[in-house]
Amino acid sequence: MEEEQSELILGPGTVLIAPHPTETIEILATPQQTTDRYRLRLTTPPGGGPGISGLGPHVHPGFIERFHCVSGAMTMRVGSKLQEIGPGESAEALPGVIHGFSSKDDEPLVAEVEIIFTPPGPRPEADLVAFWAIVDGLIRRGDVNSKTGMPPLLHLAVLVDRFPEAFRQPGVAGWLTKPLAVLGRIRGYR
Protein backbone atom coordinates (compact mmCIF):
# COMPACT_ATOMS: atom_id res chain seq x y z
CA MET A 1 0.00 0.00 0.00
CA GLU A 2 2.80 2.45 0.78
CA GLU A 3 4.20 1.87 -2.70
CA GLU A 4 0.85 2.87 -4.24
CA GLN A 5 0.57 5.94 -2.01
CA SER A 6 4.14 7.08 -2.71
CA GLU A 7 2.86 8.00 -6.20
CA LEU A 8 0.35 10.43 -4.66
CA ILE A 9 1.57 14.00 -4.97
CA LEU A 10 1.00 15.62 -1.60
CA GLY A 11 0.80 19.23 -2.67
CA PRO A 12 -1.43 22.23 -2.10
CA GLY A 13 -5.03 21.45 -2.94
CA THR A 14 -4.72 17.72 -2.20
CA VAL A 15 -7.68 16.65 -0.06
CA LEU A 16 -7.34 13.55 2.09
CA ILE A 17 -10.09 11.67 3.90
CA ALA A 18 -9.34 11.39 7.61
CA PRO A 19 -10.05 8.13 9.48
CA HIS A 20 -13.65 9.12 9.99
CA PRO A 21 -14.85 9.49 6.39
CA THR A 22 -16.85 12.62 7.22
CA GLU A 23 -13.63 14.56 7.82
CA THR A 24 -11.21 15.94 5.29
CA ILE A 25 -7.68 17.30 5.48
CA GLU A 26 -6.71 19.75 2.73
CA ILE A 27 -3.04 20.53 2.19
CA LEU A 28 -2.51 24.30 2.03
CA ALA A 29 1.32 24.36 1.98
CA THR A 30 4.12 21.79 2.12
CA PRO A 31 7.62 21.76 3.67
CA GLN A 32 9.01 22.28 0.17
CA GLN A 33 7.29 25.68 0.17
CA THR A 34 7.74 26.65 3.82
CA THR A 35 11.06 24.86 4.64
CA ASP A 36 9.81 23.41 7.95
CA ARG A 37 6.05 22.80 8.02
CA TYR A 38 2.83 21.64 6.50
CA ARG A 39 -0.20 23.93 6.66
CA LEU A 40 -3.49 22.03 6.54
CA ARG A 41 -7.23 22.71 6.74
CA LEU A 42 -9.21 20.19 8.77
CA THR A 43 -12.97 20.12 8.15
CA THR A 44 -15.41 18.11 10.26
CA PRO A 45 -19.18 18.38 9.63
CA PRO A 46 -21.72 18.79 12.46
CA GLY A 47 -21.78 15.67 14.55
CA GLY A 48 -18.31 14.80 13.27
CA GLY A 49 -17.27 13.57 16.68
CA PRO A 50 -13.77 12.74 17.81
CA GLY A 51 -11.76 14.24 14.99
CA ILE A 52 -8.59 12.75 13.58
CA SER A 53 -7.64 12.05 17.14
CA GLY A 54 -10.15 9.21 17.03
CA LEU A 55 -7.13 7.03 17.71
CA GLY A 56 -7.19 8.44 21.23
CA PRO A 57 -4.60 10.52 23.04
CA HIS A 58 -1.31 10.36 21.17
CA VAL A 59 2.16 11.89 20.83
CA HIS A 60 4.14 13.29 17.90
CA PRO A 61 7.85 12.90 18.73
CA GLY A 62 9.11 14.67 15.60
CA PHE A 63 7.04 17.84 15.30
CA ILE A 64 4.92 20.53 16.90
CA GLU A 65 1.20 20.42 16.06
CA ARG A 66 -0.60 23.76 16.22
CA PHE A 67 -4.40 24.07 15.82
CA HIS A 68 -6.13 27.35 14.97
CA CYS A 69 -9.95 27.24 15.03
CA VAL A 70 -11.46 29.08 12.05
CA SER A 71 -15.11 28.19 12.70
CA GLY A 72 -17.03 25.85 14.96
CA ALA A 73 -15.52 24.70 18.23
CA MET A 74 -13.30 21.98 19.59
CA THR A 75 -12.18 20.58 22.91
CA MET A 76 -8.40 20.22 22.97
CA ARG A 77 -6.44 18.15 25.47
CA VAL A 78 -2.75 19.06 25.71
CA GLY A 79 -0.98 17.18 28.49
CA SER A 80 -3.34 17.29 31.45
CA LYS A 81 -4.99 20.56 30.35
CA LEU A 82 -8.41 20.68 28.63
CA GLN A 83 -9.22 23.77 26.55
CA GLU A 84 -12.34 24.84 24.70
CA ILE A 85 -11.12 26.37 21.44
CA GLY A 86 -13.42 28.65 19.43
CA PRO A 87 -12.99 30.81 16.31
CA GLY A 88 -9.77 32.80 16.40
CA GLU A 89 -8.28 30.72 19.23
CA SER A 90 -5.32 28.33 19.05
CA ALA A 91 -3.72 25.45 20.91
CA GLU A 92 -0.33 23.83 20.47
CA ALA A 93 1.15 20.43 21.31
CA LEU A 94 4.94 20.30 21.58
CA PRO A 95 6.89 17.17 20.58
CA GLY A 96 6.37 14.36 23.08
CA VAL A 97 3.28 15.93 24.73
CA ILE A 98 0.17 13.75 24.85
CA HIS A 99 -2.75 15.45 23.13
CA GLY A 100 -6.04 14.89 21.35
CA PHE A 101 -9.15 16.79 20.34
CA SER A 102 -12.82 16.38 19.68
CA SER A 103 -15.17 18.59 17.71
CA LYS A 104 -18.39 20.00 19.08
CA ASP A 105 -21.44 18.29 17.60
CA ASP A 106 -23.69 21.29 16.95
CA GLU A 107 -21.80 22.96 14.09
CA PRO A 108 -19.10 22.25 11.48
CA LEU A 109 -15.50 22.58 12.61
CA VAL A 110 -12.88 24.16 10.39
CA ALA A 111 -9.37 24.37 11.80
CA GLU A 112 -6.06 25.28 10.27
CA VAL A 113 -3.32 22.98 11.47
CA GLU A 114 0.42 23.47 11.26
CA ILE A 115 2.80 20.53 11.48
CA ILE A 116 6.17 22.08 12.27
CA PHE A 117 9.16 19.75 11.99
CA THR A 118 11.65 19.80 14.86
CA PRO A 119 14.43 20.18 13.93
CA PRO A 120 13.38 22.10 10.79
CA GLY A 121 13.27 20.23 7.53
CA PRO A 122 11.05 17.36 6.41
CA ARG A 123 11.92 13.83 7.48
CA PRO A 124 10.05 10.82 6.03
CA GLU A 125 9.75 9.10 9.42
CA ALA A 126 8.01 12.19 10.85
CA ASP A 127 5.65 12.84 7.93
CA LEU A 128 2.14 12.74 9.39
CA VAL A 129 0.65 13.86 6.06
CA ALA A 130 2.17 10.84 4.29
CA PHE A 131 0.75 8.72 7.16
CA TRP A 132 -2.74 10.17 6.53
CA ALA A 133 -2.32 9.73 2.75
CA ILE A 134 -1.90 5.99 3.30
CA VAL A 135 -4.94 5.92 5.61
CA ASP A 136 -6.85 7.86 2.91
CA GLY A 137 -5.93 5.16 0.38
CA LEU A 138 -7.08 2.40 2.72
CA ILE A 139 -10.40 4.21 3.28
CA ARG A 140 -10.94 4.68 -0.45
CA ARG A 141 -10.23 0.95 -1.03
CA GLY A 142 -12.65 -0.03 1.73
CA ASP A 143 -9.91 -1.53 3.91
CA VAL A 144 -11.10 0.08 7.14
CA ASN A 145 -13.53 -0.83 9.89
CA SER A 146 -16.86 0.79 8.97
CA LYS A 147 -17.61 1.62 12.63
CA THR A 148 -14.26 3.07 13.71
CA GLY A 149 -12.91 4.29 10.38
CA MET A 150 -9.58 2.64 11.20
CA PRO A 151 -7.49 0.09 9.27
CA PRO A 152 -7.12 -3.44 10.62
CA LEU A 153 -4.91 -3.57 13.73
CA LEU A 154 -1.91 -5.23 12.06
CA HIS A 155 -1.97 -2.81 9.13
CA LEU A 156 -2.22 0.13 11.53
CA ALA A 157 0.74 -1.24 13.55
CA VAL A 158 2.88 -1.46 10.38
CA LEU A 159 1.89 2.09 9.48
CA VAL A 160 2.66 3.52 12.95
CA ASP A 161 5.98 1.62 12.98
CA ARG A 162 6.85 3.09 9.54
CA PHE A 163 6.34 6.67 10.81
CA PRO A 164 7.83 6.55 14.35
CA GLU A 165 8.32 10.32 14.66
CA ALA A 166 4.87 11.12 13.31
CA PHE A 167 2.58 9.21 15.61
CA ARG A 168 2.81 7.17 18.79
CA GLN A 169 0.27 6.04 21.32
CA PRO A 170 1.46 6.06 24.92
CA GLY A 171 1.24 3.12 27.30
CA VAL A 172 0.47 -0.45 26.35
CA ALA A 173 -0.64 0.45 22.82
CA GLY A 174 2.80 1.96 22.15
CA TRP A 175 4.65 -1.06 23.50
CA LEU A 176 2.63 -3.41 21.30
CA THR A 177 3.30 -1.55 18.06
CA LYS A 178 6.65 -3.18 17.21
CA PRO A 179 5.63 -6.85 17.72
CA LEU A 180 2.31 -6.25 15.95
CA ALA A 181 4.14 -4.55 13.07
CA VAL A 182 6.46 -7.56 12.71
CA LEU A 183 3.44 -9.85 12.60
CA GLY A 184 1.72 -7.52 10.11
CA ARG A 185 4.75 -7.58 7.79
CA ILE A 186 4.83 -11.39 8.01
CA ARG A 187 1.18 -11.36 6.89
CA GLY A 188 2.10 -9.15 3.91
CA TYR A 189 1.20 -5.61 5.02
CA ARG A 190 3.63 -2.99 3.80
If you had to describe this structure to a student in words, what would you say it looks like?
With 190 residues, this protein is an alpha+beta fold. It has a single domain, classed as Jelly Rolls. 25% of the residues lie in helices and 28% in strands. The protein has helices spanning 2-5, 31-34, 128-141, 153-162, 172-186; strands at residues 15-17, 24-29, 37-44, 63-71, 74-78, 81-85, 90-93, 99-103, 109-117. A 6-stranded antiparallel β-sheet has the order 1-2-3-9-4-7. It has a 3-stranded antiparallel β-sheet with strand order 6-5-8, with no helix packed on it. Strand 5 and strand 6 (81-85) form a beta hairpin. Helix 4 (153-162) packs across helix 5. The termini are close together. Residues 1-7 have low confidence and may be disordered.
